[in-house]
Amino acid sequence: MTPEIFGQTYQRTPHHSTIAQQYMAAFEYKKGIQRPYFFTKPLVKPITLSGFEKIQLALFLAFTVAVRFFNIQYPNQIVFDEVHFGKYARNYINSSYFMDVHPPLVKMLYAAIGYLGGYRGDFVFNKIGDNYIGKEGEKLVPYVLMRSFPAICGVLIVILSYFILRYSGCRHFIALFGALLVCIENSLVAQSRFILLDSPLLLFIVLTVYSFVRFSNEPEPFGKGWIRYLFFTGVSLGLSVSSKWVGIFTIGWLGVMTVNQLWWLIGDLSVPDRDVVKHVLYRAYFLIILPVIIYLGVFAIHFLVLHEASGGSGTVSPRFKASLDGTDFSNLYANVSFGSTVSIRHLGTGEFLHSHNHTYPKSHNQQVTLYGYKDSNNLFTIEKKDKLSDKELFGEVSFLRHRDVIRLFHKKTQGYLHVSDSRPPISEQEYNNEVSIIGDKDYVPDVNENFEVKIIKEYSDEDAKHEVKSIGTVFQLFHKGTKCTLFGHRVKLPKDWGFGQLEVTCIESPVLKNSLWYIEENTHPLFNQTYPAKVKVEPLGFFGKFLELHQKMWKTNAGLTASHKYSSRPEDWPVLDRGVNYFNRSGRTIYLLGNLPIYWGIVFTIGVFVVFKLVQLWKWKPNHAPTVTDASAKYDSQFFIYFVGWLFHFAPSFLMERQLFLHHYIPSLWFGIISIAVLSEYVWAKLGKIVGFFYVMTILGLSGFFFYWYAPIVYGLEWNKDTCLGSRLLPNWDIPCDQFQ
């Protein structure tokens, strides 16, 4: 008997596949009072492995371990971003505060592994190519142990991929095929062999998917197994977002899957309203609150470990800095006087007003920039608008007040802060004026070096709204000559002449926050231990530090826009337009390059699904019975899960203006490989065993051959130049073949 749905007859064409029949138990309609309703049931029964399957899995596990760990000791030098993450691990071991754009979990794990291996922070990760082995042959850092962590993560990713496919309704052979593709995908192998973030991150994402699939297949809602896998899903989600912000895309994917589940639950008339509310509350706690708790906990440990002030703490606010050991504001004078030597900090970016003995290419005036670290080039002496001798300037204390007119004399290069009506080198709009340093000690300034101090009361402390005080007073500097306001923003000057520092201009009608400044350092020859009063800086608590750090992480991440020889854009990744050179030494190279048949296979697989949905839409007719086979329903539902995962981890990259590389595609790549396996299951079920076997073996053969052929640039093995040149299949594959003979 076929049920009626909104006046239509829903016809199901069964397929003679045990897995398909088992799967379709999840797609049932029952007769309701007014209409049939969708009846929700688990997708797949518990998986039981036969003895032969267990042997196959054991052999496959051994093969995976060999693939991930082969030649892991090579090179015994710093490779690519190991220079960053090794340095961060060293900072954790030394408790020295630093700022990075990524959440801290994986970096802390590397530090813990290094510490357990005997590393005490004495090896400095200075640059790519530095040797991990000392002159006497001793290991300066347990780099093999630290590399073993992402390799183990890579092994677990492969094994979990098998079980995810099994619990997604795939037969053993197809699940093994999908896991094997994950095992031999070149970029996944390469990325899991070095001290990098991506392999642990991907493991946590895959754990999230595995736990969610298991949770979705639990037969008893609110039972022990159901709660257990929902808990693991939330924990894995928290670990993902605590490793890299890519985990936010995983949250988006899981959100769509959860809403989809709840939608069908609401329509299931056999589920009481009270249970629907319980479903919502359980998911809200385990999938929202629990990951937030984990995320906050990871940062709490981060702040607890990094408690020492260091060079990296120069980028944080004074209140943040006051929370770090080794920071001493007890000698910082509150009142600012004419004759004071000060550092002036930009409120919006947190960087210092700075100048150095380099010029702009057009005007040849001395550059004025924003610089993120404490430096002698940040120091300016506050002078009055009338030129005074040193004896007159430094011989009295005259506190700076709202509306006072000042001149700023750059101590290191002996010139005055100046604004002209010429256009800046980068922001060349008519309303922007160039800021520079001109003159020398004997130069007699004019109105073009005069700035009016305007205290912005709503941003200033209560006792710092009339007189300028260190840290507490926030002010603008209004240029009297051109009637503009000193302005800083995150536009970077070119590295070749501006060293990547931020641009400073003077603008007529600025965005308020980009025109705000405060004073952080303040000295004067007549200041002493008792006069004037010292600044009292209240340290930030956990949430204050948490919020400030995240603002800086976001802004710094968005500011990583500089070009790089091996950077690429998202549209390049699915077709594997180019790779990334990781390491070159002595006739060997390591070059991050994906497995072309797998990458292109994902594009084909996504295309098939799009065509599948378009055909469904074309065939759909009102008041006619749709015909759905078991295999088609399974393919439609399961492919949707992994297609959304691929899309959610890929599409946001198009919105990013920051520097991107091929390895940013890795989470989407994994979802794409799982999608290949799901399509293969559909081909096997729909077209028969022979066609399915041929389809699978074709993909596997091409992928396996590609992995074997390009293994030398995965593992850093010997190769020859002619073979390398012949292996540049696409125009942008810039493998450094000159490294080979």
How does this model look, in words?
- This protein has 741 residues and is α+β, with helices and mostly antiparallel strands.
- Among the domains are: 4-22 and 29-39, no CATH class; 199-302, no CATH class; 330-536, Trefoil (Trefoil (Acidic Fibroblast Growth Factor, subunit A)).
- Strands 6, 7, 8, 9, 10, 11, 12, 13, 14, 15, 16 and 17 form a twelve-stranded antiparallel beta sheet that branches.
- Strand 1 (4-5) and strand 2 (8-9) form a beta hairpin.
- Helix 5 packs antiparallel against helix 6 (172-184) and helix 5 (143-166) packs parallel to helix 8 (198-216).
- Mean pLDDT is 90; it is low at 1-26.
- InterPro entries: ArnT-like_N (IPR003342), MIR_dom_sf (IPR036300), MIR_motif (IPR016093), PMT-like (IPR027005), PMT_4TMC (IPR032421).
- This is Dolichyl-phosphate-mannose--protein mannosyltransferase.
Topology, element by element:
Blueprint: E1 4-5, E2 8-9, E3 11-13, H1 18-24, E4 28-30, E5 37-39, H2 51-69, H3 82-94, H4 105-116, H5 143-166, H6 172-184, H7 186-191, H8 198-216, H9 224-241, H10 247-267, H11 273-305, H12 318-322, E6 341-346, E7 352-359, E8 366-371, E9 379-384, H13 390-394, E10 405-410, E11 415-419, E12 432-438, E13 451-455, E14 475-479, E15 484-492, H14 495-498, E16 502-507, E17 517-523, H15 542-558, E18 580-585, E19 588-592, H16 596-619, E20 627-629, H17 630-650, H18 666-687, H19 689-709, H20 711-715, H21 721-726
Helix pairs in contact: 1-17, 2-5, 2-6, 3-4, 5-6, 5-8, 6-18, 6-19, 8-9, 9-10, 9-11, 10-11, 10-17, 16-18, 16-19, 17-18, 18-19
Protein name: Dolichyl-phosphate-mannose--protein mannosyltransferase
InterPro entries: ArnT-like_N, MIR_dom_sf, MIR_motif, PMT-like, PMT_4TMC
Pfam families: MIR, PMT, PMT_4TMC
